[in-house]
Amino acid sequence: MHLRKAKLMFFYTRYPSSSILKIYFPDVRFNKNNTAQLVKWFSNFREFYYIQMEKYARQALAEGVKETDDIVVTADSEIFRVLNLHYNRNNQIEVPENFKAVVQQTLREFYKSISSQKDQEQSWKKAIYKIIARLDDALPEYFKSPNWMEQLNES
Fold first, then answer.
1. What processes does the entry annotate via GO biological process terms (predicted)?
2. pLDDT tens-digit profile of 115-132?
3. What distance in Å separates the CA atoms of residue 100 and residue 26, rounded to the nearest whole number?
4. H/E run at residue 10
């Protein structure tokens, strides 16, 4: 259940602090080990996310996309479907509208870096990570509840 909740939270926040995690997992008695585990989950979620971004940005370049404005992410986009399937397998929540904007911005940042050959430099992704970290949203209140799943069904 905690892993499922964390995956759904990823739609809002890619870089939650440990203090945020403690607020949104009130049923967990936090210690060094389980705090590290939760932080690791989000690290793994980001890794999958960024691997997809790089893949689709390279694909856009190979398909001849010339302008970053030509990269548009909608609910029907393949990348959006892949991410939704990974983080929201059972469609438990309606993906927040802003997540599409975050995906689009991330994809455009990867595209710009790859097309300008910044990907030849070591640590080229760090600049992208900093941009995306600023796009985190506030988490919905229902995630604070130990009964968050029941509240999902009510909304």
1. cell development; glial cell differentiation
2. 999 999 999 999 999 999
3. 29
4. none
